[in-house]
């Protein structure tokens, strides 16, 4: 599988836009193309053009969770596909279009996605596990055996009774890729904890993962620094013992990546806008 980063927080090129968010273009060995997340706005489409990628040729699109920095570009994608005469299915998890906010009950700001988009017939709401066929599986997990980001406590969602409650991230989904005898996990922000998501993927596959392509939510979004250095070092130890190759970006943060790199060396890499890598 080849992955191209269409949107991320940073870029080394003046020709490409950088935004706080994520969008990945996944090209599988069998020729299928998957758009995984769409960044906060239409900027990922501009970057795609510069990189020679036509996002309207995707066989499917996936929204990893219901936050604007991953799904704010969804209207632009739907419009581009309509203009190209393409009917690309967009797979979202139940609850993705609920109201999502960051902050406290007294002081908060919206971080969700326009709920009107849920009415679009191309948007397909899936449950905890959904098979896309030929080795691709979307899945969610409520397992929390390993720690998740402390900053999750500042993220709330509107419940059915109208009150705001801590987000349980039931609207988060990841992609398991079985290809050429290898197992690859693709995750957007890993709000549920990257080790918990890895455990769920390995449970589905019945074997250890070979590679993980994921944001790990190790950065404090308010200050941009590492959220918990001790937690990152423990994560690095666990990843080292598992022997998995890791490629990360976005919410992991450079400071946390440096800690991971100290332990994992060349088995971990940081991707930015324009990165192209064979996973």
UniProtKB/TrEMBL annotation:
Residues 22-135 form the Metallo-beta-lactamase domain. CDD domains: DHPS-like_MBL-fold. This is MBL fold metallo-hydrolase. One of its GO terms (molecular function) is transferase activity. It comes from the Bacteria. It holds the Pfam family Lactamase_B.
């Amino acid at each position: 599988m080849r992955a191209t980063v269409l949107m991320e927080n940073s870029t080394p090129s003046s020709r490409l836009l950088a935004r706080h968010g994520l969008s990945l273009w996944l090209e599988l060995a069998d020729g299928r193309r998957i758009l995984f997340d769409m960044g906060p706005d239409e900027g990922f489409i501009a970057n795609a053009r510069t990189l020679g990628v036509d996002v309207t040729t995707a066989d499917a699109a996936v929204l990893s969770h219901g936050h604007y920095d991953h799904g704010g570009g969804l209207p632009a994608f739907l419009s581009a596909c309509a203009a190209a005469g393409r009917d690309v299915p967009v797979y979202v998890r139940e609850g993705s279009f609920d109201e999502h906010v960051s902050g406290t009950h007294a002081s908060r700001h919206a971080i969700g996605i326009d709920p009107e988009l849920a009415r679009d017939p191309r948007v397909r709401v899936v449950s905890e596990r959904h098979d896309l066929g030929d080795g691709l599986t979307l899945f969610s997990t409520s397992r929390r055996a390993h720690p998740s980001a402390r900053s999750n406590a500042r993220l709330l969602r509107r419940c059915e009774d109208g009150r705001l409650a801590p987000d349980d991230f039931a609207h988060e989904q990841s992609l398991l890729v079985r290809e050429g005898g290898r197992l690859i996990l693709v995750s957007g922000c890993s709000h549920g904890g990257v080790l918990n998501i890895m455990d769920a993927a390995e449970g589905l596959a019945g074997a250890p993962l070979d590679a993980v392509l994921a944001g790990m939510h190790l950065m404090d979004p308010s200050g941009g620094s590492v959220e918990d250095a001790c937690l990152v070092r423990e994560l690095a130890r666990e990843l080292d013992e598992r022997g998995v190759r890791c490629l990360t970006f976005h919410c992991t943060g450079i400071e946390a990546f440096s800690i991971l790199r100290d332990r994992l060396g060349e088995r971990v890499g940081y991707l930015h806008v324009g990165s192209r890598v064979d996973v």
